[in-house]
Design brief:
alpha/beta; Rossmann fold; 3 domains; two-stranded antiparallel ribbon; about 15% strand; binds iron/sulfur cluster
């Protein structure tokens, strides 16, 4: 962007919860500054521009696109490709676009079992005819189409080339503003970078740290931690040791463990592996059976604990696909098979 000319901005929401859209609105009065800097040419939740309006734009005519959400459907894949083509700078905005986040945890299952849970085996669903969404439904007036629901959720970066990543679930308002001002001021790091800080949540955390030796992990409801000592030292699985800073250690400041929403630091290829390695060095035992018991009892949901935000973007990506009608085995994913 240059001179006094207003830039153009697009925002899009794929497989995500919508929290990233709220995070943009949480800019509060700064949203007026955004509107002064950019014409918002596409933002389905807030601006009445249609997909065909984007299709008619010249390639590269959108200065910046903030794209949140992973890619679960054919429609989301099409929009990712379209907005990539139309945008000079494509930002994977938030954890879902960056790493898959909670929607990506469904990669521990597959389409068939997701549909079985959502449309059939669900106490709040009444579906006596066993109807499921169809890609094509013939009607007298013509065929109706729904997007294809893919077996595996992909991150934005696994789908199209991404220029920058803005982590967080959702990204903190201050980091969003930092990113906008960096884009406007042309002070961007090399393409492919994460916009943020390359250190860990522990570095932002005010809690007192001593030697970390863990004999037992507690579930959050089992203890009330003191509000000054490192939560990990108190036996709570705090992921701050492996998580990129940028939020100001928001969760540990309110007596809640970091669950890792900012993802890994630069140079870490697999967040879960990094976290497991860090924890392994802190377990106070040399006995493999005792170590196994400490982990199994204290961390009963390894995927949800180590890959809560990053399964789709990890080196694992997904569990083995189901065979013989059995659901994929989530435990086998954890064991690396
Ligand atoms: S409480 Fe969590 S974020 Fe804070 S120092 Fe301990 S491990 Fe790090
Ligand atoms: S403390 Fe951890 S989970 Fe909480 S906002 Fe920060 S990075 Fe996310």
């Amino acid at each position: 962007m240059n001179g006094d000319k207003k830039g153009t901005l697009a925002l899009y929401w794929a497989a995500s919860c919508g929290g990233c859209e709220i995070a943009v609105l949480a800019l509060n009065e700064k949203i007026l500054d955004v509107a002064a800097l950019f014409d918002i040419v596409f933002w389905p939740v807030a601006v009445d521009a249609k997909v065909h309006d984007v299709e008619q734009m010249a390639d590269g005519s959108i200065d910046v696109c903030l794209f949140n959400g992973g890619i679960r459907t054919s429609e989301q894949e099409y929009m990712a490709q379209l907005l990539r083509r139309k945008s000079k700078v494509l930002v994977a905005f938030g954890s879902c676009a960056h790493e898959g986040c909670i929607p990506g945890l469904a990669n521990a299952s597959d389409r068939r079992h997701i549909f079985a849970t959502v449309y059939h085996n669900n106490p709040s669903t009444e579906n006596p005819d066993g109807i499921e969404p169809q890609h094509k439904t013939p009607m007298p007036e013509g065929d109706l189409h729904l997007p294809v629901f893919y077996d595996t959720l992909r991150t934005l970066g696994q789908t199209v080339a991404v220029d920058y990543y803005l982590p967080g679930c959702p990204p903190e308002v201050e980091r969003i503003w930092d990113a906008i001002t960096a884009i406007v001021g042309g002070q961007l790091p090399p393409a492919g970078s994460v916009l943020g800080v390359d250190t860990t949540v522990c570095q932002e955390c005010p809690r007192v740290r001593n030697e970390k030796k863990i004999k037992k992990f507690y579930r959050p409801w089992e203890i009330i931690p003191d509000d000054t000592t490192c939560l990990l030292e108190q036996g709570l699985l705090c992921c701050g040791i492996a998580t990129r800073a940028g939020c100001g250690a928001k969760c540990p400041r309110v007596n809640s463990s970091c669950i890792g929403c900012y993802g890994p630091n630069d140079g870490v290829h697999d967040y879960g592996a990094r976290l497991m390695t860090a924890l392994a060095s802190m377990i106070d035992s040399n006995d493999p059976e005792e170590i196994d018991s400490i982990i199994r009892q204290g961390i009963p949901d390894p995927i949800g604990s180590f890959y809560r935000f990053s399964l789709a973007g990890s080196q694992l990506r997904r569990s083995n696909r189901s065979t013989n009608g059995n659901p994929p085995d989530a435990r086998r994913l954890h064991d690396g098979h």
